[in-house]
Write a sequence for this structure.
């Protein structure tokens, strides 16, 4: 793995890259409160199988793309960043993987640009339509999502999270993320303006349009001990995918799947990529459809 800077019209994104330059391209999108480092085990596994894998620090996490105001973090802008990064890399099509907020961006990108996304893999985050339905009908999901309202307060949220050597920020990882990675995330988010930029993702307001059903081959991986996303939204997500769909629920695993269960995720991800061939979005073999689980 090496570090890479990607210049776009919006600014310069920092990234980690691995695998042969001629390999099939895969883009990995991290969530909050992490960086592209969250994908290091997936980068190593995919690179070993010949894929070209890139994990950028997304808008606000890269110092070179850090607008001060929440308006700079609308979901459409985050999707535009994905397009800009992949165009700068010369990737006409690519496999897209996202976790947490990166998962939300991945859903919206696959909806807006189905011709660019060869396959979609989303970890933890349900389809935004399924999540919206659950927030209306499921008290359990409403309780899980109350933190989003609290985090929109500023600057009290930042001060609270970073107080006492970022005690509350560290607690979010719940002992499920390697300590070295936690320390790296805290150092990164302790930079001036970095945590505010990350929280601006929550403060940017509602999407400008409704999201539709997803047409590209999709793998959705959820875990039973996820504190942010409950079973109602997870189980409904399959209703929002029209293309080939596979749903996997990991028993006893928390929200931090890429780092807590990397081998399991790597196995599922490689299966998904290999099932859908080198080119196009048509599966070369029918995937396991476990949407009823």
């Amino acid at each position: 793995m090496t570090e890479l800077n990607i210049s776009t019209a919006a600014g310069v994104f920092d990234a980690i890259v691995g695998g042969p330059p001629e390999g099939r391209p895969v883009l990995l999108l991290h969530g909050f409160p992490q960086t592209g480092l969250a994908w290091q085990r997936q980068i190593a596994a995919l690179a070993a199988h010949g894929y070209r894998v890139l994990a950028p620090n997304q808008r606000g996490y890269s110092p070179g793309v850090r607008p001060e105001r929440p308006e700079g973090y609308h979901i459409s802008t985050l999707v535009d960043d994905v397009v800009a990064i992949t165009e700068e890399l010369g990737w006409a099509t690519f496999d897209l993987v996202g976790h947490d907020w990166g998962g939300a961006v991945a859903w919206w990108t696959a909806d807006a640009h189905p011709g660019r996304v060869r396959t979609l893999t989303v970890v933890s985050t349900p389809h935004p339509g399924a999540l919206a339905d659950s927030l209306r009908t499921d008290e359990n999901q409403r309780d899980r999502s109350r933190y989003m309202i609290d985090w929109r307060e500023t600057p009290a949220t930042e001060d609270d999270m970073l107080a006492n050597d970022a005690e509350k920020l560290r607690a979010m990882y719940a002992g499920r993320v390697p300590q070295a990675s936690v320390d790296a995330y805290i150092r990164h988010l302790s930079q001036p303006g970095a945590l505010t930029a990350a929280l601006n993702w929550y403060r940017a307001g509602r999407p400008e349009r409704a999201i539709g059903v997803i047409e590209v081959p999709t793998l959705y991986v959820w875990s039973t001990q996820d504190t942010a996303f409950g079973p109602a939204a997870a189980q409904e997500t399959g209703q929002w995918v029209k293309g080939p769909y596979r749903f996997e629920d990991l028993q006893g695993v928390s929200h931090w799947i890429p780092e807590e269960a990397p081998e399991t995720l790597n196995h599922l991800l490689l299966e998904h990529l290999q099932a859908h061939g080198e080119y196009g979005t048509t599966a070369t073999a029918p995937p396991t459809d476990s949407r009823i689980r």
About this structure: The first helix runs from residue 40 to 48. The chain has one domain: 2-275. The chain has a mean pLDDT of 93.
